Amino acid sequence: MMDSERIKQLIEAGLPDCHAEVDGDGHHFQAIIVSPVFEGKLILQQHRLVKDVLKQHFDSGELHALSMKTLTPEQSRAGQS
Fold first, then answer.
1. CB–CB of 29/67 below 8 Å?
2. Where would one find coiled-coil regions in this protein (predicted)?
3. Taking a C-beta distance cutoff of 8 angstroms, is the pair 33, 68 a contact?
4. pLDDT digits (tens, 9 = 90+) for 25-59
């Protein structure tokens, strides 16, 4: 079973200059992810980048559900939510 800290580590290792906050109950997780790699990309493209990082964990069933909010550093600094 995955935990919040492990998911955070995987996301931050898989995306350039990324900062992630992950919370969850062991089955369902929520994440706020900030990375410059999201710049100029649609939300769907941003979410796909994160899901690609976690693909093997989704495929194995180790990670079941992750809702996410993705932001560029500029959006994060501006306090967008």
1. yes
2. none
3. yes
4. 888 999 999 999 999 999 999 999 999 999 999 99
